[in-house]
Amino acid sequence: MGDKLAVLLYSRLEAMHKRPDRILFNSAVREDLLTLEPAGDTAKRQKEYVIEKLSICSVVAVCGVVLSAILWIKDGMETRIVDNQINRNAYGDGDRSITLVADDGEAAYHIPVTVSERSYSQEELKQLSDDAAKIIEKEVLGRNQSLDRIEYDMCLVKSVAGYPFAVEWRTDGAYMDSGGALVQDRLDTPVLMGLTAVLSCEGFQIEYDMTVRIYSKAIPSDKSELLARQLAVIEEDSREQQNMTLPSEIGSQGIRWCYQRNYRGLLFLAATPVLVCLISHGKDRDLHRLVLDREEQMCMDYPEIVSALALLTGAGMTVPNAWNKLAGDYRQQCERGGRKRYAYEEILLTVHEMESGVAQAKAFEHFGRRCRIPRYTRLSTMLSQNIRKGAANLPLLLKEEAAGAFEERKHTARELGEKARTKLLVPMMMLLGITMLIIMVPAFQNYF
């Protein structure tokens, strides 16, 4: 499926009036493919490579869009509230914090609600502290300056830090709800109201009475605050019921409720093109990594090739015969299951060129250009000049080149060893951290 889609997409891109050459005919990709397979059909190989990459990217894109659509539909279904009923968690499962969306036809209001777990009658442990009552008297003021002038919502705390008790409040619901929010926005005259804090712990409790003077609210309530206040009252009154019934209207306006939407589908949809671009870039990087590995392998084989040429030419062989000898030995090694060596593949290709009628000097020059490595270019220059002009001291020159190449390989081997040592630092540090945790965790557990 992905291959057919990729072929169709490739043909459409190729048929466009303004073709995206950066995708179809990337010069960097073409150079890498030509380096890896100099004798192959580069144009055909590049087309196959682009189709392969488009196949992977198209599959990822389709999967990302489908998954985004599924999540979007699933999240939409999860927002539905049937008959204005919200299920509570069973007793012992803990409270559940949700965000509800109230739609009255004119606007949508996001109301955060904490739905407590279903509670049952049980003995409550209570304890009283006069010092805690003094702290409560200061904390309940909130933004107000004193109890004689309450014009902002009060902060009716449920507990006091450092004291093992629970705090419950009794208020006049006509002016203040159980959470400390002022119910009425405007008052003709200030109202005195009794406020009672019940401090309890284990089997003991005491009531702490306060008198507050309520004024008109400094900041009038908006519809969202009114809904939140109404939901708080409903939630408190229905704690012993399995379901919490939401109001179907506020004032004279009807309300439709739903859960707040989760936008995971859109996140997946936004991440899909990023993932496709990363995969496309990763494929090109892997291809170039093969080119770098080829260059590294050829550099490691260079001293052996030059040394073998020096030995064979010094024994009286001509350069072409020595070259054919290297190619023949490599061909036999491959037939016995030996691994592919890029330098010897280039030697084989040079032999095929000479057998097909290409001049020996030209074939050696082509060898140097295909290898794209300075040391091989130097070798090809020496061999082509020997063919054209002759050089009695060629074996000596090859021996000197081999000696220098072996020294370079030693230096390269040292550099690779240092790189490998550096790469091992990360896992070694991780192992050290794990070892320290294994030793320290039991020690701390025994100490504390």
Return residue spans where pLDDT drops below 50 for at least 5 consecutive residues. 119-128
Going by helix content, strand content and strand pairing, the class is alpha+beta
Instruction: Estimate the helix proportion, in percent.
Output: 55-70%
Strand content: 5-15%
Largest sheet: 3 strands, antiparallel
What is the N-to-C succession of helices and strands? HHHHEEEHEEEHEEEEHHHHHHH
The average pLDDT value, as a whole number, equals 80
Rg, Cα atoms, Å: 41 Å
State the distance separating the first and last CA atoms.
Answer: 61 Å
The tally of helices reads 13
Shape: elongated
Write the layout of secondary structure elements.
Layout: H1 2-15, H2 21-24, H3 27-36, H4 42-78, E1 85-87, E2 96-103, E3 108-115, H5 130-139, E4 166-170, E5 191-201, E6 204-214, H6 223-237, E7 243-245, E8 249-250, E9 253-254, E10 256-259, H7 264-314, H8 319-335, H9 342-355, H10 360-371, H11 374-389, H12 394-423, H13 425-447
Antiparallel strand pairs: 1-7, 2-3, 2-10, 4-5, 5-6, 8-9
Helix pairs in contact: 1-4, 3-4, 3-7, 4-7, 7-8, 7-12, 8-9, 9-10, 10-11
What do these coordinates show?
- The protein has 448 residues and is of the alpha+beta class.
- It has helices at residues 2-15, 21-24, 27-36, 42-78, 130-139, 223-237, 264-314, 319-335, 342-355, 360-371, 374-389, 394-423, 425-447; strands at 85-87, 96-103, 108-115, 166-170, 191-201, 204-214, 243-245, 249-250, 253-254, 256-259.
- The chain has a 3-stranded antiparallel beta sheet, with helices on one face. A 3-stranded antiparallel beta sheet has the order 4-5-6, with no helix packed on it.
- Strand 2 and strand 3 form a beta hairpin.
